Amino acid sequence: MTTDQVIPVPPDAHAAATPDPVVVARVKALESLLLEKGILASETVDRIADLYEKEVGPRNGARAVARAWTAPGFKQRLLADPVAACAELGIGGMQGEDMVVVENSDDVHNVIVCTLCSCYPWPVLGLPPNWYKYPAYRARIVKDPRALLREEFGLDLPAEKTIRVWDSSAEVRYWVLPQQPAGTEGMSEDELVELITRDSMIGTGLPVAPGEPAGAR
Amino acid sequence: MTATTDTDTDTGVAVADDCRPDVERIVAALPGQDLLPRKEGELAFSAPWEIRVFALAVAAHRDGRFAWPEFQGRLVEAIARWESAAPAERASWSYYREWLSGLEALLLERELVDAGELDARTDEYLHGVRDPKHH
What we know:
The structure holds 2 protein chains of 2 kinds.
Chain A: H1 21-36, H2 42-56, H3 59-70, H4 72-80, H5 82-88, E1 98-103, E2 108-113, H6 122-125, H7 130-133, H8 135-143, H9 145-153, E3 162-167, E4 172-177, H10 189-193, H11 198-202
Parallel strand pairs in A: 1-4, 2-3
Helix pairs in contact in A: 3-4, 4-5, 8-9
Chain B: E1 7-8, E2 13-14, H1 20-28, E3 38-39, E4 42-43, H2 48-62, H3 68-84, H4 95-109, H5 115-126
Antiparallel strand pairs in B: 1-2, 3-4
């Protein structure tokens, strides 16, 4: 069979994919067997997956945050019922887990972790970065968040700011609504989306302020 | 998104882009381009498992487990099987489900994976033996 064969589009080719638990389990099983047998190196798989993870990725969360910054009504709904508010933007895919959005303020900085494994609000933030899964992050963010954020993420929070660490579980996935950077009040939703990084919604970073080098603060 | 959001802070190494041209060549030659979910020209994935299974096949090829046209052939066969299936079995369509089926066929044929072992491991994940309710 040749590879450039033209295959007709099935009628429902573009229907939303429903996550089939058997398929999900089978992919995990296949990956674990291939790694275990040494047929594949996990770094090779990760490197290729990394190229595309942004596709499912944090852009969904960034859209929700930008909307919350520009539409107070949406922000209220997002904090009250994130699953329903995200559904308004066409963001779905949660399978029975609840989602809780925690809001940063002048007094409080929030950061998320899953101390047990690597639970993560993936429909909103995409796949978790590797460091999110490492014991070094999972243990230390609970014990010494201020030092970890400063030393590993270059995020030096003022001493008077309270840091709250939210431990996700299979039932509840947390994510952070960052504060809108000063001086961006006149920007459009689309422009704001570009400022909202994945790390700012994990709590290990802040949104990029306009005119500031990425990753600063 | 800015580049800094994609750095791996544990190792200080930015996500390697070195395999990108290779992967893009592969993507450009995938069968069923019309069926391939895309957004703004880039591959679009709707769930993490789709990215994982995509990466597994590309990684296995890059590690020399099979030539890419061999996988392409299996994918074409899997898609063709779906298309000729009875309407009842065609209730849902997923490019990456067919991708998985093509990859499985090739790995089993090469005896890189054992069918019984794969079924057993799948069951373990499905029933939370390995992955208790997480992810």
